[in-house]
Amino acid sequence: MAEAFIFDQKVLFKHCDPAGIVFYPRYFEMMNDCVEAFFDKKLQWPFEALHGDASVPTADIHTRFVAPSRLGDRLQLGLTLTRVGRTSMSYWMQARCGDEMRFETEATLVHVDANGRPVPWPDAIRPKLEELSE
């Protein structure tokens, strides 16, 4: 399996409910932050450049929440590409706090044009995606 892209995330007050644990929709924001950092750091294609005439919405996502995270926890989100298609890519992500898994997710992103129609990955990006998925 390809090496994971690692994204560090401290659990902040804004992520938590009144009980001091992460409110589950905030995990999806963390996942997206990891994806956005992946595009910026690994593909050198930051969202501010990508979203000029295209986007990469999530078409499918399956998440399993394993254990709660609390205010101040330091999570490591690891994103690994599992498949690269003509217009889409799939990844597996897990979040850990030390040795404990907090969640894992599988998702598919689709590269779409300004009208929301799937389009092939740009020639400058496809080789990077394929290399990272090997």
At the fourth level of CATH, the homologous superfamily is Hotdog Thioesterase
Shape: elongated
Quaternary state reads: single chain
Number of domains: 1
* Tally of DSSP helical segments: 3
Relative helix content: 10-25%
Strand order across the largest sheet = 1-4-5-6-3
Mean pLDDT: 95
Write up this protein.
The chain has 134 residues and is α+β, with helices and mostly antiparallel strands. It has a single domain (5-133), classed as Hotdog Thioesterase (Thiol Ester Dehydrase, Chain A, Roll), CATH 3.10.129. Helix content is 22%, strand content 37%. The protein is built from three helices and seven strands. The strands form two sheets. It has a five-stranded antiparallel sheet. The longest helix is centred in the first third of the chain and has 18 residues, at 24-41. The mean pLDDT is 95.
